[in-house]
Amino acid sequence: MCGITGWIDFGRDLRAELTTIRSMTATMAARGPDADGTWLGRHAALGHRRLAVIDLAGGTQPMVDDPGHESSAVISYSGEVYNFPQLRDALTARGHRFRSRSDTEVVLRGYLEWGEGVAERLVGMFAFAVWDERHQRLLLVRDRLGVKPLYYYPTPQGLLFGSEPKAILAHPEAHARLGTVGLQELMTWVTTPGQAIFEGMRSVRPGHALRFDRTGMSETAYWRLPATAHHDDQATTIETVRQLLRESVAGQTVADVPLCSLLSGGLDSSTVTAYAAEGLAERGEGPLRSFAVGFTQPGRPVEDPAEDAWFAAKLAATVGAAHETITLDAADLTDPAARFAVLRARDLPLGLADMDTSLYLLFRAVRRHSTVALSGEGADELFGGYPWFHDPGATTAQTFPWMHHSAPVDVSGPSFLDPDLPRRLALEDYRTSRYGEAVREVPVLDDENEVDARMRRVSYLFLTRFLPMLLERKDRMSMAVGLEVRVPFCDHRLVEYVFNVPWSMKSFDGREKSLLRAAVAGTLPSFVLDRRKTPYPAIADPAYDQAMRQKLGDLMADRNAPVRPLMEEASARAAYALVEQAEPTQLQFLRLGFESLLRINDWMREYRVELL
């Protein structure tokens, strides 16, 4: 999967800056444990950490187009392009000769043949940088759904970039500063495409290409969610979804390293697991390995039929997968080393409390057996799986649907902070403004009825503002242990088709994800098809909340805590008193709030964040 980084500077000779580019590259050792490399030119320096998945011997990076001679272009690439064999054949027919079997070289030679138009031809998840020596120009490209991350940071005479903020912050010209917009993003649960938390830092938007040269910087979209009329009947639609899913999973099971699936026993992960097991068997490979996470809960075994692990094990047995449940307890989730690893992986205090730590620990255990895993992210956003899709109040609210009947600002942080902070930061105005921006982006059909138009808007918001939060979490937690996680539901061909299916077809039987259930009805057993949607599991052991309560008490007693400038003593004490008096069930609702406060404090200390 890899990590990429680089430095462009038109005011100095970067051939003497090996130490700096190596320092930037070293921050992402976990993303690429198999190899590292750098390339230096007069005004460009590129770094790469490699997780070898395809062509283990031949995919070394950064990769130049003509080793040993004056190069036209050099690439630092992260991700997987699943249609690279077909593109390789097309390029070979045009006279290109390849030195490796890697998709990296296909992307590089595709750039030499088609320029930045190569992005439109790629199917997969990717983020890459191409330095064009001929034109002294940098091209940064990110995949359509934003599965792979890519940040950048303008400097007075150039640009820094990296897969993660930490790579950029390792450069002496980059600074960990937190301004008003960064605080607004943190405290409103708004994920604005292109926006990064650190002041001065940006993110390449999904489906966009950014160009940078001596004349400046420009960013354009090479892909947007299209609005097209849907003419297929229901039977044809169901069959098309089935075929697109099969093709997506089949394309993503290709690897030169051990592959597995992440299996909760729900509809999404079971679909991916069943199709992957079927595909491997057809190729004479397998059995597919699968993994689930479970928790030791007082008075309840992991094998309880109410738990994900029970459904996962039963589905694995049905499809012939070799299954294992990774069981965690409160001690695992409160381990300081694990919590620190999560903080360093994310670079930011965003997160889902214990669910981030458990995901990291699951991935760490999986990595002992596999290098590539398949996951079910994207299905809920695409097929209408969340309760908000079926709540008229949420779908008609003039805000992001997942914020309807909730108060994330009051629950997840400011209740422990200065109560005047939301007003001073104009958080409600910020949320309203960002919602308006998102709605104005939604593609429309002139003759679409009111319900379908409304649900198209809701789907767009989830795909472009909610899903990115989950993809970022998945990327950071998996790459922290050198595990590549692929997401078949994010294949843009499937996304384009399902996005344009009318809501009446997506919900034809009144249940969530009706269309997906119908598409896999002949593949999955009834105990999965009839199972109601459940969220990613959280630990319910009071011992965990007691441990977090103690950490919160330590923070309250620390007069030098970095988060103090954002706190107001009276409100913080009142919130802490509520935590002290809460029953275990109440603590679960308060957990996200005080965990957010703890994480912000740890983040500010570890990254030496300067408040502007």
UniProtKB/TrEMBL annotation:
Enzyme Commission number(s) from the entry: 6.3.5.4
Domain of life: Bacteria
Record InterPro entries: Asn_synth_AEB, Asn_synthase, ASN_synthetase/amidase, AsnB_N, GATase_2_dom, Ntn_hydrolases_N, Rossmann-like_a/b/a_fold
The keyword Amino-acid biosynthesis belongs to this UniProt entry's keyword annotation: yes
Positions marked as site (Important for beta-aspartyl-AMP intermediate formation): E377
Example GO biological process: asparagine biosynthetic process
UniProt KW Nucleotide-binding keyword: yes
Known catalytic reactions: L-aspartate + L-glutamine + ATP + H2O = L-asparagine + L-glutamate + AMP + diphosphate + H(+)
Catalytic residues identified in the record: C2 (for gatase activity)
Pathway: Amino-acid biosynthesis; L-asparagine biosynthesis; L-asparagine from L-aspartate (L-Gln route): step 1/1
GO molecular function annotation: asparagine synthase (glutamine-hydrolyzing) activity; ATP binding
GO cellular component, one term: cytosol
Binding-site residues, ATP: L262, V293, S375, G376
Residues reported to bind L-glutamine: D103
Domain spans labelled Glutamine amidotransferase type-2: 2-215
Swiss-Prot/TrEMBL keywords: Amino-acid biosynthesis, Asparagine biosynthesis, ATP-binding, Glutamine amidotransferase, Nucleotide-binding
Matching SUPFAM superfamilies: Adenine nucleotide alpha hydrolases-like, N-terminal nucleophile aminohydrolases (Ntn hydrolases)
Family from the record: Belongs to the asparagine synthetase family.
Name of the protein this chain belongs to: asparagine synthase (glutamine-hydrolyzing)
